[in-house]
Amino acid sequence: MLVKTKGQRHEPPGEGGNRPCSWSSQTVVLVVDTNSERAAQIRASLGQLHTSVQFESDPTKAVNPLAASRVAVAMVALGQKPVAGSTELSAIRGLCAVESEVIAYAQGIRDWDIRSRCLPFLAGATHLLDTHQEGFAVELTALLRSMLERISRRTAEERDIRTAMHRLGIAAASKSMLELFRILMRFSQLSDLPTLITGETGTGKERLARALHQLDPKRSRGPFVPVNCGALSSTLAESELFGHRRGSFTGADRDRRGLIRAAQGGVLFLDEVGELPEAVQTKLLRVLQEGQVLTVGEEREERVDVRIVAATNRDLDQRVEQGAFRPDLLHRLNVLPLHIPPLRQRREDIRPLVDHFVAMHARSFGRPCPTLTDEVVEALEKLELPGNVRQLENIVRRALVNHTSSAALRLGDLPPEVWREVATDRSEGVSTPSSGHIPCTAQDLEEHVRHQFHRLVDLTNGRLDRSLEFCERLLISLVLERTHGNQSETARLLQITPRSVYNKLRKYHLRFPPAPLTALVLPSGLNSLLLWGVPAMM
What we know:
This protein has a five-stranded parallel sheet with strand order 2-1-3-4-5, sandwiched between helices. It folds into four domains: 28-155, Response regulator (Rossmann fold); 172-341, 3-Layer(aba) Sandwich (Rossmann fold); 344-423, Helicase, Ruva Protein, domain 3 (Orthogonal Bundle), CATH 1.10.8.60; 442-532, Homeodomain-like (Arc Repressor Mutant, subunit A, Orthogonal Bundle). Helices cover 43% and strands 10% of the residues. Mean pLDDT is 80; it is low at 1-18, 427-440 and 516-538. It is of the alpha/beta class. The protein contains 20 helices and twelve strands. The protein has helices at residues 36-45, 65-68, 87-97, 114-123, 136-167, 175-188, 205-215, 237-242, 259-262, 278-290, 316-321, 327-333, 350-364, 374-381, 388-402, 416-423, 442-459, 464-482, 487-494, 498-508; strands at 28-32, 52-56, 73-77, 101-106, 127-130, 195-198, 224-228, 267-271, 292-293, 302-303, 307-312, 336-339.
């Protein structure tokens, strides 16, 4: 396995096989091979990479939980011909589950049937090499060198991304947020293209929009003008955004530039853009297409140079289907899409967020920053947090108000509703079908589903949006499996548009083939739903 190391040097590659490497000399490559003679030959061919090589002859031991978390690249030898469920394929899946890059190799691959050749790729291998092919050692060395250099660059890039996130006040540790910010940094360089940020209420869409503005090399010195579209009066929305001339309507006693022109040279942030009146949507489309603004009461358009960043917690595809949102405006806004996953899907972000909020609000209260006890973080990680980051911040603020000593922040400082939710035994009363019993009639199924839905109501506090979201996610995952990942066929069966299927797959992070069952994280008490045969999902 290749161990990710800190403090790596990054030098430009030289020429030929002796060029300096950009990774640490402590980098380790793991070779999983039951054939000791072949493994020794591979060791010899890897000598020029200036890495230490480790071997494992037993594929079942290749995914040691402690060591596997450090794996970046591994080489796994296959048998004469792989079969589904083999230990070698299981080792590949296990290594890929901890984000390893895996090279599979075997003898005489060209004689395998096409199905057998596909199995290693389905398990997650990125390459399949034939040891009998002429030049195997050279190809393997070049491939590993390329992979090690790419990993080294990615490590340095991740370090830079985390530094930028910290500088911009974005507290996160999850892979999903790291990837989101990597995309945001790339989008920030595209200064003239609109961006659409989606996510549930309280996930931090405006914070992300401000980070985009600050990273934009062209517009960071210009203004950032936020607009809450949901708070705009339908009668005055056009005037607020586009401005008006004095006397153009009753009450217009002076000229007004409008918020779009106020953002000249910078960013106009349209929060809750799905709530814009239809007449304003039409005029906004003109701004996006031509960069022109027509002030109320004026006869000539005026050119503007503004980047538009929109955000919504609504399903705009659904709004389009309902006739409440223009499809052409959606297409113009959704050029650079960013989706923020809800906090319940990235629990590892809770601790850095709590640390950030404790430090920020302790300063605002004029108090020293208290330390955190593990019990506080553990309790907060068990909450559903439908209000996402905003709700978590409110809980931390209230805990600091309750905290009157100089000691660490403890469980007793948290609000009573936190104790109540954590203390609730969510598994109590959950029944699962006995082994061998599967509801086989509509009446049996309805009775079984009704019982599970009682638990679902308890776990979501009766919230319709959360309950429907859970059910929608399960249904789409099941239909996607039945159609073998065919999104057009999935749309046909669900009677929705292919675009809606695409957006929902992104929203719920669904993929085909589905993630292994062990990777699924569901609210406690709902695991029995899996006994219906519903596939796992991320």
